[in-house]
Amino acid sequence: MSTYLYPLAFVLLVLCAPPATAQITITYDEFAQLSRNEQVEQFQTLSAENMALIARTQAERWLAWNREGLTEKQIKVLNEVITMIEPSLYEEKNADMRDQTVQQISEQLLAVLPKEEAGRCCGAGAPYIPPFEQ
Prior knowledge:
mainly alpha, 7 helices, 62% helix, disordered N terminus
């Protein structure tokens, strides 16, 4: 290989390689199969949209599986919480808003659910919930 091809090969590798800031996309079900340490590590590489999707899916599935045993007020609060889980919460520039929203979500959940159930619904490291089929 002639010496002028080495720089060309380098340029092609750089242009074809994903950018260092590339973010992967992972489904809730794939994410849930990772170990807790892998989840923590992987979550930091996801886009804000993907982070919100994973968190929202956990809460939606928890609600689907537990709906029959919940009061109307609990269902209403959970639906409100689910709508609050949006990509803007996970954007770096919104750290203050995220802290306020997370505090609000926690307060709303703990007002209608025992702490353990609130953690299963929306807590970090919450157990995997398969799709609900009626």
